[in-house]
Amino acid sequence: MVKPIGPICNLNCRYCFYLEKEALFPPGEHFRMPDEVLESHVRQYIESQDAAEINFAWQGGEPTLLGVGFFRRVVELQERYAGGRRIRNAFQTNGTLLDDEWGEFLGRHGFLVGLSLDGPARLHDAYRIDKKGATTFASVMRGMEVLQRHGVEFNTLTVVNRTNARHPQEVYDFLKSAGSRFLQFIPLVERVVARAPQGPPPGLAPPPAIGGSGDGNAQVTEWSVLPAQYGKFLIAVFDEWVRKDVGRVFVNVFDAALSNWCGADPGVCVFAETCGSAMAIEHNGDVYPCDHYVYPGVRLGNVLSGALGDMVNSPQQVRFGEAKRDGLPRFCAECEVRFACQGECPKHRFLNAPDGEPGLNYLCAAYKRFFAHVDPHMRAMAKLVAQGRAPADIMGMV
Fold this sequence. Notes:
Blueprint: H1 35-47, E1 53-58, H2 68-81, E2 86-93, H3 100-108, E3 112-116, H4 121-124, H5 137-149, E4 154-160, H6 168-178, E5 182-187, E6 191-193, E7 203-204, E8 218-220, H7 227-244, E9 250-251, H8 252-261, E10 280-281, E11 286-288, E12 301-302, H9 308-312, H10 315-326, H11 330-333, H12 338-341, E13 351-352, E14 358-360, H13 364-386
Helix pairs in contact: 1-2, 7-13, 8-13
């Protein structure tokens, strides 16, 4: 996951955890990936893999702030080092700066675009505002129209927060009516550390060490989704999807669940047994275990002074990935839905289990309820797959 403009963004979403990463860099930092860093990353990323298809992921901040010219250079470097292999690019954007120049470029080069959209206007605009405090929904929808006009493949990324989680049917219906057929639902869980009256202002709490407990002084933010809310949200959307939309609309959480019920790779890091494959590269070439763990103490190296492949396979990164599995509390290890959940994202593991052991996921109650609810349907779809039939056949069975 490449952050070519670091945390710099034209929006000021109230819930964004990455904006504060600007403080990691010295005053006057030029937040634009230098060409030598870009070329080193592209070359090493391609050379370190033996697959016939290489996938790049570009995020921010807001990558469109770099301009189309930056990504023309990306494509040029990819073509130079591809060595006959196919290159694919995924590009996450808030969509507000997309225009026909962007649309033509993204469509011509086959970029898959992730568009951040939290629901209809009143729900989207609850937290997704610009630097002046103005709403952004209308600008995002104009960006979606650009993508559709130029035939750009896109999915929507919806941050499920304490506001839109109350309206699962409305969110789901809206995303479908807007033209999205590939939906990502990301639960919002952030904590803030309170400060003394004479101290600095509150700041986001860092994620807990895997297998450990979080900062006891940290409190979940008022915009974070509640576990009960998130469980109800997923169930409500699933019940609609399984009756009408299997094979027509694709939802990341449901796809991952079906993969786990089939005994396959879930394709989503949070539901995998181990993690560590979703690393992040900052604009200056620094490499981190994950974009939720961008802190100086866990930095793996820099692509200008080290080999990317060595960082990926370093003992430090291997330990980071395996700690997700090894750090599960016994309460999780013995859970009947562990195979589907795997303790979810380590950054959410800041509660204690009922027996007092640290490392319980904040969303545990949500996932236990959701996975128990979908179990009969997932078993049925897994059986269909084993028979060589389409999972969509379940719609005639419910």
